[in-house]
Amino acid sequence: MARSTLYLAFFALAAPWLYDRYQALSHIYQNRPGSLEPIYGFKSHEIKFTDRLRNCEDVILDEKNGVAVLSCSPGRDKWNSVMGVFKPGENMERGAIYVYNYAQLDIPDGETLNRVTFEGFDDGDFHPLGIEYVPEESRLYVINNAQSGSVIEIFQFDAAAHSAQHVKTVRHPLIYTPNAIHAIGEDKIFFTNDHYVPARTSTILSQIETFAGIPGGSVVYMDLNDPDSAKTLAHIGFANGIGMLNSTTLAVASSSKPGVYFYDVTPEHDLKYKYYLRTPVGVDNISVDSDGKLLMAGHPYALSLIQVAEARANCVLDSEKEEEKEACGCGSPSWAAEWSEESGLKELYKGHDICSSSTVARDAKRGVGFVSTLYDRGLMIFRE
Ligand SMILES: *[C@@H]1O[C@H](CO)[C@@H](O)[C@H](O)[C@H]1NC(C)=O
Ligand SMILES: *[C@@H]1O[C@H](CO)[C@@H](O)[C@H](O)[C@H]1NC(C)=O
């Protein structure tokens, strides 16, 4: 075969992939520092608890009781098994779960936020990522990317008393790079693994997997009381947030593609691919509000997020040294959007008021929402 024919065959095969990467990377380029066009679709916002909360990636709402549950990992500065930062030291801060009563107006403001106390659980190696809360069953599930290995923790959770009684730790070969959980009751869950190559194994290969858009992440079903029931249902690139739009449709975010994949869930807990929504920004986590709208948060400029993650390894809070203080900064923009089949994609926010947004959740009836972040202080609370 003539060499030119070979080249042609190669480009024909690679063209869709090149086009796809071109699309993904050109969006990142458009949001580079100095050229990001801000979007502000809220009525107002405030950033609360900057003195108490840091690196709170996840926020889950119990709209009925007006309660938000937060997963915070200040230790992510030194230990980030998703992005590949492994500099644990003796003073590494412990992860924590918080309960925020955002709707009980009779509670004094200073007492609305409480750190959850654990019973029967040693939080010495606690690095929480995705959490899931099932208020009807008082169950709290936490992905713990512990130094000793990634596991899923189950707690019996009393939100009103902000205490969590440990039930058990689940380890399994299919829990290898766990990121987000969606529970469907009775300890049955869907969860994502973000990469095929864990950053713990090779940070470089894991990053190549991300930027090449290789579908190495996975969606797994597991009955936590029968871990052998676990099965891999789908493979997508940098699988991240996961949630159900209604009783049949599962949505899974891909941070690298970027976009959101929709599947039909069969009674056997298998997935049938339905469609794919391309997003202008790499989506991190997703949530579904009580109106059935899909909410997405993400990172408009992935490169600045990587910079923040790498700099944080050298961060010393309250340090005298200028470079150690600077390493604690956060300069990665945030993005939030909503989607429904009827109205399509609507961007709600893009800007720098808060850094590195990871989750947006909304109490549709009360007209209040929350944006949590990978690396900033506090919690953004917006009104609509
Ligand atoms: C994202 O949010 C959902 C709830 O919408 C939660 O179940 C999941 O664990 C979250 N986590 C991450 C880190 O993506
Ligand atoms: C669930 O949501 C999807 C996406 O909006 C929609 O296509 C589907 O018809 C909905 N199914 C039910 C049972 O409401």
TrEMBL record:
Keywords: Signal. Residues 1-24 form the signal peptide. InterPro entries: 6-blade_b-propeller_TolB-like (IPR011042), Serum_paraoxonase/arylesterase (IPR051288). This is Calcium-dependent phosphotriesterase. It comes from Polyplosphaeria fusca. PANTHER family: PARAOXONASE, SERUM PARAOXONASE_ARYLESTERASE 2.
